[in-house]
């Protein structure tokens, strides 16, 4: 029985993250991934069915990793506006801490045809602290009646701006958070 080499799996995942930025998703092939990772293409197929399976499983893993700690970042004793600011600040911190992963997530979310059904469903399933916050926003009379999809879009605005302006200040990000709150308040 063949033993799983975690170093090779890690190298494959890092290769995908790197190549997603330099090559783009559609130009990324398993051969390029393998070469960049320093493994044979057969090694990829030992762990993944194909490129879609690799991208999908990595997408799910990265999504989980980027949300670790979000529950602790949101102080449930604060009002909803403060919790929105805390959630956005956390997202920005994670984006800055893990830019390759955040870029990968955003790129795949914009190119869902490259994901399998399970990954798309996984991406659409929101659990935990962010889902709880969105639910509190949706049931509160202080906020406009908008869908979860619209809320998600508003919450991605700071990271979209960070892609274009990586050196944006905390003060400017605070203003963006205030604009988002103003946009969804009654």
UniProtKB/TrEMBL annotation:
Pfam hit, one: TetR_N
Signal peptide residues on this chain, from the entry's feature table: none
Alphabetical UniProt keywords: DNA-binding
InterPro entries assigned: Homeodomain-like_sf, HTH-type_Tx_Regulator, HTH_TetR
The entry's DNA-binding region: 29-48
Family annotation (PANTHER family): ACREF/ENVCD OPERON REPRESSOR-RELATED, ACREF_ENVCD OPERON REPRESSOR-RELATED
Protein name: Transcriptional regulator, TetR family
Originating organism: Weissella hellenica
Organism classification: Bacteria, Bacillati, Bacillota, Bacilli, Lactobacillales
């Amino acid at each position: 029985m063949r033993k799983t080499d975690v170093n090779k799996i890690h190298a494959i995942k890092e290769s995908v993250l790197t190549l997603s930025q330099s090559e783009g998703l559609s130009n990324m092939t398993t051969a390029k991934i393998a070469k960049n990772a320093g493994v044979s293409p057969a090694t990829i197929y030992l762990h993944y069915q194909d490129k879609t399976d690799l991208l999908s499983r990595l997408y799910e893993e990265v999504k989980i990793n980027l949300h670790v700690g979000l529950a602790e970042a949101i102080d449930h004793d604060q009002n909803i506006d403060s919790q929105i600011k805390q959630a956005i600040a956390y997202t920005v911190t994670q984006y800055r801490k893990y830019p390759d992963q955040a870029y990968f997530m955003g790129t795949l979310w914009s190119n869902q045809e490259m994901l399998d059904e399970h990954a798309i469903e996984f991406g659409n399933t929101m659990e935990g602290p962010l889902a709880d916050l969105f639910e509190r926003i949706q049931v509160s009379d202080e906020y406009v009646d908008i869908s979860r999809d619209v809320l998600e879009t508003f919450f991605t605005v700071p990271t979209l701006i960070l892609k274009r302006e990586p050196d944006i200040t905390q003060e400017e990000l605070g203003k963006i958070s205030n604009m988002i709150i103003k946009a969804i308040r009654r």
